[in-house]
Specification:
Layout (H helix, E strand, L loop, with lengths): L2 E4 L2 E4 L4 E7 L7 E7 L6 E7 L5 E3 L7 E6 L4 E6 L8 E8 L4 E4 L3 E6 L1
Parallel strand pairs: 2-11
Antiparallel strand pairs: 1-3, 3-8, 4-5, 4-9, 5-6, 7-8, 9-10, 9-11
Length: about 120
């Protein structure tokens, strides 16, 4: 199922951006989240929300600055990013988990944080 991402862009250090994601077709998911990949680095998970438990995960690097939220019925997820740093520069990917694996990935949206 294609995922539609929006909200990336260029922002100065200390600024804020909000990423949003929704599937093109309805689906039933167990969790949704965001990964990112910076140039020359491996893809890493940023934040995720599990619908049944309500558990939310944040990578240590973004705790206190990023906030994930979503709507289970609509299968939408957003990532509010505050106090952005140059090291947050990356392509951000929306992901959907059906059972135990991240089954669907968005095409990615570029976030660039300038000094």
């Amino acid at each position: 199922v294609p995922l539609v991402e929006s909200g990336g862009g260029l922002v100065e250090s200390g600024g804020s951006l909000t990423l949003s994601c929704a599937p093109e077709r309805p689906l039933t998911s167990a969790a949704m989240g965001w990964f990112r990949q910076a140039p020359g680095k491996e893809r890493e998970i940023v934040a995720a929300i599990a619908w049944d438990s309500g558990n939310i995960f944040y990578a240590d690097a973004v705790k206190g600055r990023f906030s994930i939220s979503g709507d289970r019925k609509q299968n939408t997820v957003s990532l509010q990013m505050h106090n952005l740093k140059p090291e947050d520069t990356a392509v951000y990917y929306c992901v959907v988990r059906i059972a135990t694996l991240w089954n669907f990935w968005g095409q990615g949206t570029q976030v660039t944080v300038s000094l």
